[in-house]
Design a protein that fits this description.
CATH class of the largest domain: Alpha Beta
CATH architecture of the largest domain: 2-Layer Sandwich
Number of helices: 9
Largest sheet: 4 strands, antiparallel
Radius of gyration: 35 Å
Order of helices and strands: HHEHHHEEHEHHH
CATH topology of the largest domain: Alpha-Beta Plaits
Number of domains: 3
């Protein structure tokens, strides 16, 4: 009789069986989803301060002459990348903080700022994000003013024009309550599913006649029902296979010594 229908070193996962296992835990998983969403929503609403963003815009041009030629347009396009780096330089950042009386560090100010040069344009958008909408507006405008002066003083170029002054934002840009709520719920759901997956893989008990046929390769001739109050003595399939393997190794060892 073949008592080794499966590889003792492998464990197959029956996806359909796993699905029904999860389905049997559906109310707990649903509760985990709702709980994660509620916790994430509460943290977002009560513990995370809303942030606001204001943007000032500069127009970069390399000459203030009335006539415009292609070389000057090309030079202006090339200089925009240099201006982006100049705006992020320590002299500009520290001058802005000094003018506004901010005690922010250079690194913290860089995290508040985002400088973008839209593709195929000579515009520079300076965006400041802060928990104080007025502060974001003031810093964005001050960066535009200081950048104009620094470009003229350091790079010996014509001052760019301020196309648009920053205004005080009326709506927050973050955090997103809906997004954080959804992410929190999904993360909690995935965490619970992961725990149940581990428990599923560690559960090696034989529960049904199908398990006997599947793991041991033998057919059940009869089923003896438990009497009322009697507990089932379940033995893990891995334990059965491990014991058989140890007996087989011991038999081979004795044969080798002989």
């Amino acid at each position: 009789m073949n008592m080794n229908p499966i590889n003792e070193e492998e464990q197959e996962i029956d996806l359909l069986d796993l699905f029904f296992y999860y389905w049997s835990k559906k109310w707990i998983l649903l509760l985990a989803l709702v709980l994660g969403a509620l916790v994430s929503a509460a943290v977002t609403h009560f513990l995370i301060a809303p942030t606001f963003a204001s943007t000032s815009k500069l127009y970069v041009f390399s000459s203030n002459k009335g006539a415009i030629d292609f070389s000057e347009l090309q030079l202006s396009s090339n200089l925009t990348n240099d201006y982006v780096e100049l705006i992020k330089s320590r002299p500009v950042v520290e001058t802005v903080n000094a003018n506004l009386g901010n005690d922010y560090s250079y690194e913290h100010t860089l995290k508040m700022m985002n400088v973008v040069n839209p593709t195929s344009t000579r515009f520079l958008n300076i965006t400041i994000t802060s928990t104080d909408p007025q502060e974001a507006c003031d810093m964005a405008n001050e960066f535009a003013e200081v950048t104009r002066d620094q470009i003229a003083a350091i790079m010996k170029q014509d001052q760019p024009s301020i196309v648009e002054q920053a205004v005080v934002a009326e709506k927050k840009v973050g955090p997103s309550l809906k997004k954080n709520t959804a992410i929190g719920g999904l993360l909690m759901l995935i965490a619970f599913m992961g725990v149940y997956l581990i428990l599923y893989l560690l559960d090696d008990t034989i529960k049904t006649e199908e398990d006997v046929e599947k793991y041991l390769g033998v057919n059940t001739l009869a089923v003896i029902p438990l009497r009322e109050g009697e507990k089932r003595n379940e033995r893990g399939i891995r334990s059965v296979l491990r014991a058989r393997k140890e007996r087989l190794a011991a038999t081979r060892g004795k044969g080798g010594k002989a």
